[in-house]
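Chain X:
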Amino acid sequence: MQRCAGDTSISIDYTLELLFTGLPMNDKVFGHLIDGEWVTSNEVTTNTSPSDTSDVIGQYAIGTADDCTRAIAAARRAATAWGRSGLEERKAILDTIGAELIARKDEIGRLLSREEGKPLAEGIGEVARAGQFFQYHAAQVLSPTGEAVDSVRPGIEVEVKREALGVIGIITPWNFPVAVAAWKIAPALAYGNAVVLKPAELVPASAWVLADIIDRSGLPAGVFNMVMGPGREVGEALATSPDIDAITFTGSVPIGRRIARNAIENMTKIQLEMGSKNALVVLNDADLDVAVQCAIAGAFSGTGQKCTASSRLIVEDAVHDEFVDKLVAAMQGLVVGAALDSATQIGPVVDSRQYQQVLDYIELAKQEGATLVQGGEAITLDTEGYFLAPTLFTNTTNEMRINREEVFGPLACVIKATDYDHALEISNDSEFGLTSGIVTQSLKYASHFKQYSNSGCVMVNLPTAGTDYHVPFGGRKSSSYGPREQGQYAQEFYTIVKTNYSKPY
């Protein structure tokens, strides 16, 4: 195992110099973290910014299945001792990680935005939220998790306990490279598990910085490991390993299903957060200014690259035209630009493949008969980047592919509904069920929608994108599989229940 130039003895100042100023990279390869050591691979990838493809962020190691196997073995060796570690030790370490993330939110947020493309304010906010995840689960470490239960048999005591699973494989997406990783890693460590993280290939810099913070927190070697690289090799090694006790994954439906098929061979516990095609319903009685705000934030924040984005806007016919006019006017005022520009409201699409995918869906919508009313074109700026105008189609139906398939970009479609019942029917008519929303002043319809919307998270007079870290998150149907994430509900995935019976004499 070869030590990387960036081992734990490297000065933090030098590391930040490399990461944040773009200074010479030719003698530095950012490596994997395996068993407490930073290690390189034979192959590296050059990480560039989607805001400016000439902006080289750094060189990052490309891992192999063998690297992943070594990381799993290290986690397995460390898991037992960490599972028996003191609660105050775990709490202190998680607090340390959370505090550093929050203290450095500006600089790390800048790196995240530079690498992934979201506007700077969103990047900073994501890092701060990641710190809050660690601090929340630090507090949860001291929350009681067991219970004493009366037996149906006299003289017998029953004790229900939760124990760590062992080794958790974590596979994270590129759209929230720090926050999603944090909301999986924090509870895994809090409940006494060891971790192997496989971050998305597109965002190695954000993953590396997070891993560096975790590594310096006082965590014993091997408890947390990170291997960068392609899903077809590193991810596959995680999903097929008999030494992994559970896998938590956020990403696409096809890959999630593949992971599920692989995991079941070893009876590995799985938690999958996958695709979406979220709907925002606008009723005739809605405050249209509120509706437009919800549509803008839900459909276009984060360049529409959120699993909670509302790409289907279902509008009752009486307010349809006025809503569209107001929405188009608001969209025309949105500033598309480089992620680090303070004026930017919509950043670039993450890479060339995603950029082309959105353009292809725009052409598909036209072919299906949808009417383009705003955007739909690539934008040329001073830098070479993947910039697209926020795009809106009208005259669409729920049967069109553009309203059935996840686009994952700054594109929304308006579907006209005849009444509330029709709108609810359209909203529920999807293979996905992550989030949904309704804009209305009617308590009757708001209450009915909350009860009968077939999604895991329901928003009333709020954007579909935007959730809290202390309550459960997840969807229904093809959007999610397995226990919920976040809040106290996280214990359902990261622990196993043991029921103890005893007779005192």
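Chain Y:
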Amino acid sequence: MKAFKLTVIACSLAVCAGCTMAPKYERPAAPVAATFPTGEAYKDVMTTASPLPDWKVFITNPKAKKVVEMALANNRDLRVAVLNIEKARAAYGIQRSALMPSVAAGLQENAGKTPSIMLATGSSYVSHTYQANLASTAWELDLFGRVRSLSEAALQQFFSAEENRAAAQNALIAQVATSWINLGAQKEFLRLQRITLQSQEESFKLMSDSYRLGASSLLELEQASIPFLKELKEAGMANEAAVAQYERSLAQAQNALNLVVGAQVPADLEPNNLEEATNYGAIAPAGLSSDILLNRPDIKAAEHNLMSANANIGAARANFFPRITLTAGIGSTSRHLSDLFDAGTGLWTFAPSVSLPIFTGGANLSTLRQAEAQQKIMVATYEKTVQNAFAEVSDALATVGTVNRQCAALKDLVNATETAYRLSQSRYKNGLDGFLTVLESQRQMVAAQTNYISAESNRLSSGVMLYKVLGGGSVVEPEAQTAAQAVTPAAAEPAQTIPVSSGGGNA
């Protein structure tokens, strides 16, 4: 009967050893629509049956790819994210070690002197005791899963750190690509303004010489030049200021790229003009569902944080139940060091203890309430992360769905203003219009070209941004991917009078 009771107890302990008091985890329902918005703003989004490619496949421009590789090796924010993984792994290792007993070996000597007055011999006595032992101290039998819950919480924090690293890398790749594209756009702006300034300076000199040769006096020259040269000179000064502004913007764009990369980007890796970073364009998986958001690293990280908070509730609940700890040891003791390991010197200790919380001043209840509140916070944080992701994807899809039409319309406007500028020049040479008409036509053409460069930069960046907000290449593993097929808009023709490079993509 006694053996039967011991068997029952042993079985109960084995069953309890696999138990925790954490609530059953269920992923919260996504507080967003099942599908992303549809309508006119989204109709031009190109879709593919293939999954999103790995970034090494997505970024096709050789120079942009090398710059991204530099950033992955040198960016300090990404380096911190990687080190946080190591930190979380170590924290998990520390917490997990509590599941195993700790064993330590020890060797000690105790010496004591007995005064002569206490001994019949009349002389003092010095005693020595030597002891060697191997002991396990205060190992908790985790019957109610407190230690395992804490270990699970640490494990989920480790997983969260890994996903945060993936999110940081995904954001870094997109930031480098967009910064690289922006640098190309700033070079285009500066090139356009310099060509415009040169054209205006040449026109001013030509007009000045023409009036100076035809004027009979200085007064006549001043009177004749007022309606023409004054406007032309002011336009030149305004354009000169614009050149200085774009020189500053170009320098700032270079500094921004160097900062995000974490190192000096060589000049030969900078875009020469508005080059495409990728030939995939703005793509999205066909039949796009909001479930794809669950593949985003930041959402995965938020869910792991929620799972960690859920495990902490189990640990807090276990505090209400008894804790059983075991202390045991074996060793040897002797009065002489030489006899320490002789027969008959062995000893052992075994000291199990049970601690039952009866009154804690409300500490255990407060700890539980704190853990439950933290879990609710993590639920709200997870839901907010999903909502933010849904909004980001929706905005990116709206940009992608309209930017091609915007670029096409602005390109048509560029062509129209270039034609008007050439016509005004011809009419001025034939004496049909004044030079102010030519100057106004030039202003309109430059404004149209500037707007086109901005739109084209936005078009190139929008594809990168859509790739980022969809989770990048984290949708599937790289080895299972197939390159997506998409058609990119044709490269625009350069302007005829004041060239604007549209930059075809580098395959």
